[in-house]
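Could you join me in thinking about how sequence relates to backbone shape in a protein? Would you write everything just below, so we can both look at the same thing?
***
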Amino acid sequence: DLSTDQGIHYLIGVPSETVPTQGVFTYGLLGATRPTIADGSVAPGSFDGTAAVWFGPAEPARIGLTGTIAIDNATIGFATRGGAADPSLSELRTGAQYGFTGTLDATVAGGDPAGCARTGCTVDLRGGLFGPDAARLGYTYTVGGNSASSTIGGAAVFGKK
């Protein structure tokens, strides 16, 4: 049973079978779940982010991301190297069926519902490119706190511009 301030975050999509072979494409946020903390101790927050993908010939695509989670008077940020401004520098690369996974460092300002100030936090990402010619990009994220009950999670979907 979940309380009104808890959630389960997931996304469903058809993995891309074809993607561009070169170039940089930007993606705009289409929608996101409201981030929740696992124990439901605070109200759900909000998410904002940007995304871009660098496609190179005969190379895995590189995913450039920036994200901001606002929850319980805290702002938690994360970004790949180069962010969405320069995805060619990103450490996130596509693998099988144009999926990607990775862990990024989190920055925290304001409150600290996940307990990041004591030990630092990371953001674990799991996502992929979806639809024809990578028309969509989506991922789930988990901000690791000091315990399983202080973990923050959410999901976001972006559309190619």
About this structure: The mean pLDDT is 94. The helical segments are 116-119. The first helix runs from residue 116 to 119.
